[in-house]
Inverse folding.
């Protein structure tokens, strides 16, 4: 017993010594600091087109601002993470990001559901998030100091889509489906709310969920034809949307297909067959590629990644740029100081009037971007991206 | 309710179509179970590989610009044949590596191994198609895009293909099992493995063959699925496999005609449930949201009230 | 192939159990164990973020409990890394405590599933459903969710119940999960292994579908978006929301489940289960009430799962239906198969190993490969299903009894023959 006690005493002593030693390590005063901006999006799976676009956009932003960053002594690296669009992966990825001391900011996520698990796990580490795509209302209503988004929320996008169905597409009745995810269901609920307000008939009550992993949607399609709805609104992502649209078209549905920014990907054209040219989607950016800067972006993107960028690439680019801007402005104000995560978190939230490719970015005290607008697009001649039909008022 | 009833013919047609799909997958389960009294958990994944094989064939034909120039039937037959071959090879390999070493072990052991194989194959497909095509979610080149309209019912050509294939596969299999020498040997092995061995039947070979035939069936079903839905991913087998298994149990597992009957009834039941759950509960429960539960209900009810299924024989459990 | 894997498996088994279990001299065993624990603690504190130091700490705990020393010494030696070193290192490495809690949850789940599959021989592929039950019982009333369907809550506790609810919910979660277990057990009573597997698998899916859709007509589960945030538990005035507090809570839960398991295994019920597993007909002939015992196994196993579900809700502060997928059920199955079906010690080792692999080592490996410029789309952290599949196949083919096999009470036939002669024939019938 005596020996054991002695051993324990030595042990606790060692623990204390080691603890003191450990606490001091970390933090350096060199002339350049190495930092990372992580992106958290699906890089494989049904939604990888969107997720990869965001990750690539962030990469391109870091590449483009290299010189500016080096001028203030920062070497920045991208750290793309794959969340497979599954909320369960949020905490795992968060652990990894928090553990990597060089990670200073996060671009992501694509899916609101993933953000819901990722955001709380990053909160204590003060690791700033700028989402290029999350629309769930609750995310900015939870009082997170580190969570920001550049896109419009469900309660802005959903109603805008409803107004577009009534005013631009000129349908009188609409069937509402969603994919039973945070994003899709939230969007559909806001769509239905506005539709009822402006006198647009929703033929199936408050909307109906489908299993996005299913392949056969004949039941809902039969129902769609039976109700004689003139449009189909789908709250969800392009992979399932394309399947439903195609099966509806094959069964003889002649109305329009409407969705939000989840449909904004090339695969919606490729996979929806004869339905493609009746697909409308909303987006928070107006025809980015028409402008001079936009065209240049497409060119650089194509050169770097050998593919045409989906619109989300621009959001990813802008989101990363918001963080980069914050790093640079902090470094200019505090020369020689290594920014902590909390510093960057505060600097990002203070963003006002940043001119991004997709539009202006400012953050209010919740982390929402009040300057976000919503535009309507239609696929024409089976080509992606669709033609802009202008801002939805 | 009146307008709900007016779509009844279409709902029944939809149910019948999906029922044929369950039926052709169920044939594979019931075939293997009939011989080995063993649920081949990996069958749904072999089906999935068949779908991917069919997809690859059609992609190749499209690349060579043959889909547009050749008769559609040639593309279809090519896709199905290649898929059958690939799936049969996988079936054979799985039996050789994961099941054969465990013959004679306690019941739980091969079952757990089969679950392992199923999981492995599913993820393996994900890895392969992520690595080769950049994404595991793929759109299949479309053939047979037209459809017929009979009165108020609308039937796509692709669905008719599955119906025809279902009937052909069922009768072909019944003929194979009952009339051929190999089929006779299979029945002998199913009845009494040891005695069959004593009668000069190479039991190992017959079991291998069972998996090859079962695999080929799954492969054909997979290719037909790819043609029908023009979309494949590694997870198509999971839910479909469970429903097909339910169909096999429903019809009486081990009985080939029963599997088809079970598939059709399950398909119709599911379609009716999905369409009418909403109206029946006054919109409180939505059918499409509970769609996947109907098959499970059928499974539980059958197992509780008639475990031998519709056409199965009541057998006393072998001790 | 077989010739290659057998020795590797044997070597692994030995490597895991070698260090102190073989030292018969108590003094030497104590010294070795102490030294081992001391080194592990130092390494853990110096390098808190490395997966290897966590592994080392856990091995030291295993070694200490394995050693042939007095129980008191065992508890003290195992307690130092678990009670002091790991939580301390956790304050330096924020990812450590959640990882450890996840491990405790999986150990608890694996022990519970082991009761159903390993003790009673009933293959349950929908085990995660009970976990979901427990998680929802706590989460619904410890968040704003309850106010969405109950006017009473909307008026009196719009933010959900406080931390005391955790302790009140515990028996409720156990009961709900046990009832779910009975609900599953009743229709499957007469089914054999393979039917049972498919039905339980379906049950797991159904519970997921229901929890996803029970936001209408009354919003009970929060639907697909799930429930967040969930209030942390508290002990009197002290909030147990910090990751260190949750760590201790998890440790407490797991130790309690572990003790319950050991007691159960040695009880009359445990022996009845074993008899049922080995040969249900013989067991019935010997007077084991099969139906009662099967239901008891389902209900008991389920209630452990429910308790762990509560812990999970506390740890994540967020639950949604996607958290309770089939992958989790298979993951837990892989843990108990790897460790050794029916072996409590083995199951703990298996659960710890698979958790470390899933959440730490695959990540380390993928970071390593990422430095080589491999595209993130073929990131090895996503190879979990592949890994589970391989574990199941390889263990079944090469080592069915697992890495740390169950120590069954064995009877020496020769000794028996001396005392009372065999009843009839040779001793072979006794050996079976």
């Amino acid at each position: 017993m005596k020996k054991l006690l002695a051993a324990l005493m030595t042990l606790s002593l060692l623990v204390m010594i080691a603890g003191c030693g450990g606490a001091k390590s970390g933090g350096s005063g060199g002339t350049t600091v190495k930092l990372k901006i992580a992106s958290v999006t699906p890089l494989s799976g049904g939604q990888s087109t969107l997720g990869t676009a965001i990750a690539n956009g962030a990469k391109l932003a870091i590449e483009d601002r290299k010189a500016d960053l080096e001028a203030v002594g920062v070497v920045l690296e991208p750290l793309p993470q794959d969340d497979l669009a599954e909320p369960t992966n949020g905490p795992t990825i968060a652990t990894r990001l928090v553990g990597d001391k060089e990670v200073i900011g996060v671009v992501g996520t694509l899916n609101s559901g993933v953000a819901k698990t990722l955001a709380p796990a990053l909160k204590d580490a003060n690791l700033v998030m700028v989402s290029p795509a999350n629309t769930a209302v609750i995310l900015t209503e939870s009082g997170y100091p580190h969570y920001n988004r550049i896109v419009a929320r469900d309660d802005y996008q959903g109603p805008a889509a409803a107004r577009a169905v009534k005013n631009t597409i000129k349908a009188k009745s609409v069937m509402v489906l969603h994919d039973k995810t945070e994003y899709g269901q939230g969007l559909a609920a806001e769509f239905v709310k506005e539709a009822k307000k402006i006198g647009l008939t929703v033929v199936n009550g408050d909307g109906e969920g489908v299993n996005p992993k299913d392949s056969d949607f004949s039941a809902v399609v039969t129902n769609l034809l039976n109700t004689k709805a003139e449009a189909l609104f789908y709250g969800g992502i392009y992979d399932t949307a394309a399947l439903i649209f195609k099966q509806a078209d094959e069964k003889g549905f002649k109305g329009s297909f409407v969705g939000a920014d989840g449909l904004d990907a090339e695969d919606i054209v490729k996979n929806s067959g004869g339905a493609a040219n009746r697909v409308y989607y909303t987006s928070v950016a107006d025809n980015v590629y028409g402008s001079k800067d936009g065209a240049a972006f497409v060119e650089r993107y194509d050169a770097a990644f050998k593919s045409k960028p989906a619109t989300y690439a621009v959001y990813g680019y802008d989101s990363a740029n918001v963080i980069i801007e914050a790093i640079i402005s902090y470094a200019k104000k505090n020369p020689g100081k290594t920014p902590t995560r909390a510093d960057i978190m505060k600097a990002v939230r203070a963003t006002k009037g940043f001119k991004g490719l997709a539009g202006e970015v400012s953050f209010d005290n919740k982390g929402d971007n009040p300057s976000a607008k919503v535009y309507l697009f239609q696929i024409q001649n089976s080509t992606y991206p669709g033609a802009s039909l202008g801002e939805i008022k | 309710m009146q307008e709900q009833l007016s779509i009844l013919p279409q709902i029944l047609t939809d149910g019948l179509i999906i029922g044929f799909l369950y039926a052709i997958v169920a044939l594979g389960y019931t075939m293997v179970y009939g011989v080995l009294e063993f649920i081949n958990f990996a069958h749904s994944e072999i089906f999935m590989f068949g779908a991917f094989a069919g997809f690859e064939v059609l992609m190749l034909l499209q690349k060579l610009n043959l889909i547009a120039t050749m008769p559609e039937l040639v593309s279809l037959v090519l896709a199905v044949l290649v898929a059958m071959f690939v799936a049969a090879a996988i079936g054979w390999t799985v039996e050789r590596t994961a099941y054969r070493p465990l013959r004679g072990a306690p019941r739980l052991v091969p079952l757990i191994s089969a679950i392992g194989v199923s999981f492995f194959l599913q993820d393996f497909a994900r890895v392969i198609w992520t690595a080769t095509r950049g994404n595991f979610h793929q759109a299949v080149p479309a053939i047979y895009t037209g459809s017929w309209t009979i009165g108020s019912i609308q039937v796509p050509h692709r669905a008719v293909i599955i119906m025809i294939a279902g009937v052909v596969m069922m009768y072909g299999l019944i003929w194979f099992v009952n009339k051929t020498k190999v089929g006779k040997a299979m029945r002998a092995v199913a009845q009494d493995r040891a005695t069959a061995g004593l009668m000069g039947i190479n039991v190992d070979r017959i079991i291998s063959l069972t998996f090859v035939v079962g695999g080929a069936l799954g492969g054909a079903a997979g290719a037909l699925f790819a043609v029908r839905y023009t979309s494949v991913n590694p997870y198509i087998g999971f839910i479909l496999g469970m429903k097909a298994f339910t169909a096999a149990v429903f019809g009486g597992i081990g009985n080939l005609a029963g599997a088809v009957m079970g598939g059709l009834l399950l398909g119709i039941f599911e379609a009716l449930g999905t369409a009418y759950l909403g109206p029946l509960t006054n919109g409180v429960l939505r059918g499409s949201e509970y769609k996947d539960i109907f098959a499970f209900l059928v499974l539980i009810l059958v197992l509780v009230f008639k475990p031998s299924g519709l056409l199965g024989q009541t057998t006393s459990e072998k001790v | 192939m077989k010739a290659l894997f057998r020795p590797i498996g044997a070597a692994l088994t030995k490597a895991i159990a070698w260090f102190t279990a073989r030292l018969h001299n108590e003094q030497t065993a104590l010294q070795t164990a102490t030294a081992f624990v001391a080194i592990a603690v130092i390494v853990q504190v110096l390098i808190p973020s490395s997966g290897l130091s966590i592994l080392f700490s856990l091995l030291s705990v295993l070694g200490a409990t394995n050693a042939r020393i007095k129980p008191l010494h065992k508890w003290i030696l195992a307690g130092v890394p678990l009670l002091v070193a790991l939580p301390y290192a956790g304050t330096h490495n924020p990812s450590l405590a959640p990882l450890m809690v996840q491990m405790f949850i999986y150990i608890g789940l694996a022990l519970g599933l082991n009761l159903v599959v390993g003790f009673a021989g009933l293959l349950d592929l929908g085990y995660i459903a009970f976990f979901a039950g427990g998680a929802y019982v706590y989460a619904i009333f410890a968040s704003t969710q309850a106010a969405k369907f109950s006017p009473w809550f909307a008026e009196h506790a719009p933010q959900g119940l406080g931390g005391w609810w955790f302790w009140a919910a515990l028996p409720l979660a156990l009961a709900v999960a046990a009832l779910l277990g009975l609900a599953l057990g009743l229709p499957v009573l007469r089914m054999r292994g393979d039917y049972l597997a498919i039905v339980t698998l379906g049950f797991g899916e159904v519970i997921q579908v229901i929890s996803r859709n029970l936001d209408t007509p009354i919003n009970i589960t929060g639907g697909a978006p799930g429930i967040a945030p969930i209030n942390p538990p508290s002990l009197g005035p002290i909030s147990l929301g910090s990751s260190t507090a949750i760590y201790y809570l998890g440790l407490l839960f797991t130790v309690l489940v572990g003790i319950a398991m050991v007691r159960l295994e040695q009880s009359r019920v445990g022996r009845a289960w074993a008899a049922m597993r080995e040969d249900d007909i013989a067991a019935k002939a010997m007077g084991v009430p099969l139906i009662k015992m099967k239901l008891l196994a389902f209900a008991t196993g389920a209630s452990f799962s429910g308790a762990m579900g509560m812990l999970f809700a506390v740890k994540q502060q967020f639950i949604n239906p996607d958290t309770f997928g089939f992958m989790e059920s298979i993951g837990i199955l892989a843990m108990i198969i790897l460790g050794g079906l029916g072996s409590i010690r083995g199951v703990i080792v298996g659960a710890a190993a698979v958790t470390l692999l899933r959440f730490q080592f695959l990540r380390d490996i993928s970071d390593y490969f990422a430095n080589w410029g491999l595209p993130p789309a073929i990131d090895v952290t996503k190879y979990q299903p592949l890994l589970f599949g391989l574990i199941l196949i390889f263990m079944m083919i090469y080592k069915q009894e697992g890495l740390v096999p169950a120590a069954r009470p064995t009877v020496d036939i020769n000794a028996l023959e001396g005392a009372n002669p065999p009843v009839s024939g040779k001793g072979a019938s006794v050996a079976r």
DSSP finds 13 helices and four strands in chain B. Residues 123 and 234 of chain B are 7 Å apart (CA to CA). The interface with chain A takes residues 3-4, 6-7, 10-11, 14, 17-18, 126, 130, 134-137, 139, 142, 145, 147, 149, 154, 156, 225, 229-231, 233, 235-236, 239-240, 271, 274-275, 278, 283, 286-289, 291-292 of chain B (CB under 8 Å).
